[in-house]
Amino acid sequence: MTKPPIDLLQGTVDVLILRTLAWEPMHGYGVSRFIRQRTEGVLAIESAALYQAMHRLERKKWIRAEWGLSENNRRAKYYSLTAEGRKQLRQEAATWRTYAEAVFKVLEPV
Amino acid sequence: MAGLRPYLRLPWRSASRLRADLDEELRFYFDMRTRELVEQGMTDADARREAVREFGDVEYTKRYCLAEDAMSRREDRRTDLVAELRQDLMHSWRTFRRSPGFAVIALLTLALGIGANTAIFSVVNGLLLRDLPFGDPDRVVRVWGAHKDSGVDRSQISAGDFVDLRTRQRSFITLGAFSWGGGTYIGTGDPVPLAGARVDAGVFAALGVRPYLGRTFVVGEDSSGVNPTIVLGFNAWRRVFGGDSTIVGKAVNISGRSRTVIGVLPPTFFFPTMAEAEIFTPLDLTPVLRDVNRIRKFHNLGVIGRLRPGTTVAQAGAELKSIMAELERDFPESNSNMSVATVGMRDAVVGDTRPALLVLLGASLLVLLIACANVAGMLLSRAVSRRQELAVRAALGAGRARLVRQMMTESVVLALGGGAIGLAVAVWGTRALVASAGDRLPAASQVTVDATVLLTALAVSIASGVVFGLVPALAASRGIQLALKESGRGTSSGVSRHRMRTVLVTGQLALAVMLLVGAGLLVRSLVGLQKRDLGYSIESTLTFELMLAGDRYDSAAAQDQFFDALYTRLGALPGVVAVGGSGNIPMRGGAMASLAIDGRPQPEGRLPEVGYQPVSDNLFKAMGVPLKRGRTFGPQDHEKAPPVVILSESLARAFWPNGDPIGSRVRLGPNPNDPWMTVVGIVSDVRMGVDGESRPTAYVSARQDHWGGMAIVMRTTTDPMSMLPAVRREVRAIDATIPVADANSMKAVRTQGLTDRRLPMQLMAAFAVLALVLAAVGVYGVMAYSVAARTREIGVRVALGAQPRNVFGMVLRQGMGAAAAGLTLGLLGAAALGRVLTSLLYGVKPTDVLTFVGVAGVLLTVVLAACLVPARRAVRVDPLEALRSE
Hints:
The complex is a heterodimer.
Chain A: H1 10-23, E1 26-27, H2 28-39, H3 47-59, E2 63-69, E3 75-81, H4 83-107
Antiparallel strand pairs in A: 1-3, 2-3
Helix pairs in contact in A: 1-3, 1-4, 2-3
Chain B: H1 5-8, H2 15-39, H3 44-55, H4 58-98, H5 100-129, E1 140-147, E2 157-158, H6 159-168, E3 172-180, E4 183-185, E5 192-194, E6 196-199, H7 201-207, E7 213-214, E8 229-232, H8 234-241, E9 251-254, E10 257-264, E11 279-282, H9 286-290, E12 299-307, H10 313-330, H11 332-335, E13 338-344, H12 345-350, H13 354-385, H14 387-395, H15 400-437, H16 451-478, H17 480-483, H18 492-531, E14 541-547, H19 556-572, E15 576-582, E16 591-597, E17 609-615, H20 619-623, E18 627-630, E19 644-648, H21 649-655, E20 665-668, E21 677-683, E22 687-688, E23 693-694, E24 697-701, E25 709-716, H22 724-734, E26 741-745, H23 746-789, H24 791-799, H25 804-833, H26 849-875, H27 879-884
Parallel strand pairs in B: 6-11, 8-10, 17-24, 19-21
Antiparallel strand pairs in B: 1-12, 1-13, 2-12, 3-6, 3-12, 4-5, 7-10, 8-11, 9-10, 14-25, 14-26, 15-25, 16-17, 16-20, 18-21, 19-24, 20-21, 22-23
Helix pairs in contact in B: 2-3, 2-4, 4-15, 5-13, 5-15, 5-16, 6-10, 13-16, 13-18, 13-23, 15-16, 18-23, 18-25, 18-26, 19-22, 23-26, 25-26
């Protein structure tokens, strides 16, 4: 089995998950649907990468998991942002913005 | 809220649980995604296939997530444990702050217990466990001469036997011989007496000593005609020669002979079985080997060997014994019954101190057990008042294991605190121990508080924390379910807890009784020793030793002249009653010689051995030994006169049970060519050594057997030590190169001699008193608690007409019940364990009735005293208040 080419995207996926969970606690399916709708399918992120990232972020204590009931009354694992995760989101977002602005400055004609 | 988090966390998830959780999480995703796709118009089967396809690598994701989950579970557990430990530590600290009295008493109790143990252990460690300061010390062996019939196995070996052993044996790389041989350093100041040994080249090789400076002896250096050399011990080098680093190659004057210093020994080195030796000169065996009368009959050599790799002490011993058997066949006249005993050097060095040390280590362990029992009892009582607290914590989700862990943390913290204070006690105690044992401990320099001791103290502290913490913790956590429902008093767990405390106290009392019996026996035997009539007087008596050195004392006449001048001058000093000299003073032992009686058939096997002592004319007067019959020696018994001998009463009684020995003729020593000696007098018995062992003794005139040195005994009318300057002055006036050595009052010599007996006794007594106090505190605690717990019951009894003395008696009966049980157990234990003390006892049986009765009396008195306060409190219980308070 080969490893999917997600290494480049890893940081991106992480920050997207953190941002998504900053709205409200969500289960994994909710996160995947939310990102799919938000990016309007532009970013083709496999759900596999999302789940891997969520378990990784849980270990890093940036998000925490609890079992709860879903909208259709099924047991589902809900993820929510921890204080540490919120701090991390602020940092990552700032980095992204700086990065994007720098790229734009190069790309945009003066 | 952070403090509560650990209680709210989900229980630990197992690996299979993690997998099931992940499967459920992913199943939920696929179900939801499938439904979404169906809503968009796909068939059910297509939708499910599509959901799986677009997901990506399912198997890899599962593995990845499981690995992450397992890792985070491990990290959680670790951080939780750390957090809980910190929480427990903080909690313990707050608990101790709330009840400082409890904490202080518990800490002190533990500090004493752990301190006593650590101090004794550091001595045991230094003497019994640590390596001797020799290269590869387990291969160093001491060989002693042994007599097969008498059981003597610590005697010396003759030069002839030694040389044959050395040539015939195969077990040793080296076999070396040494004999006593100190000397006097004659420098610019006062002459300095130095204890020492004459050693052959093999001795240092066998010990594997690397010199600090220079070298040690080489083969060939130990024969006469070679330039005389000397090796200095480290202390002598520093003290006498000022640590002169250029001393190697210089000449020093030892007893009038110039010797070249060839080396200095390292500071850790001590000469085994003769630790006081500071100078070492070559041993020359040639004269003895040439002398047919001494070659196998003059037993004066100590032998040290280094085993070949792979050879055991037992194998080497067997080989030497078989060589001795060959020699016995070849030289029946000198060697019948002679053999050797081979002992590993460690056993040889610490042989005599081992039983005392082990007994003391055992005693200090008992003290620690009692201390632990005390703290356990205190914790049990405290657990009652903490039941509410524990119940609240249990209600908040703390499991039983968690509560036990919390309480164990508390006790281990207590124990470590006690251990830290105990270590200070131990450092001080070790120093005091070594100081009071002084030079009587072999290798005392090895006794320090080192890493081994520190680690042991740490281990002992933690172990005792677990020992005294576990029972109360389990007991307390068992009762918590009931605690919230009941108000606490009179619950079944309270009863079992009280029973547990009674058991603890009974055990404590039993241990204390055993220690008391041990101490009592040691005290009794020491008192017996001190009271023992020695047969001579030690009051107002000065003793010192003189060793004549130098060529001018080679002739017997010169020696007589010196000592005659000495006795005359000293006798003329004001305040001197009598002065005399002897080969040794009886406290320091003496020589032995075989005894043959003229006209009687030679007995089968060996001749009987008797004590042998050359004495001056006035010695018996100076010692206060009465003459029973005949006469003492006088100037007429000079070297050319017919040889004469004086017998001790017990010797006369043993060999002339029905007759008068005066006028009989005896021969002392093995040489059949020596002349017969006529018995001229009988003196009363003198006891030998420190233990006052009786020994039939023959005395010869110092004018007829010249040892070159004498122990002088001087009876005075004033403080004997005040005469010392005058004595030194007179000795200097006769010969300024002769030092006055080992000067002391006879009383002090005796006191020093008793030190090795007194030290274990004092320590044992200290331990016993400590144990008794701790046990008394334990009894007081349990009785006070019991009275407090039974206040209502007592109130009811008083209301129903019980008299104060009934109440008083009830409490006392309970306390004395525990005392009786503890006493019985303790006395039985003491009777069973008494055998281990046998080697330390003199004139007292391990089951001495007087001691047992005395201990019982002391214990019952102390327990009674400990019960009095709680009993009086019980009498003062007001029935109305007692009933209302419930």
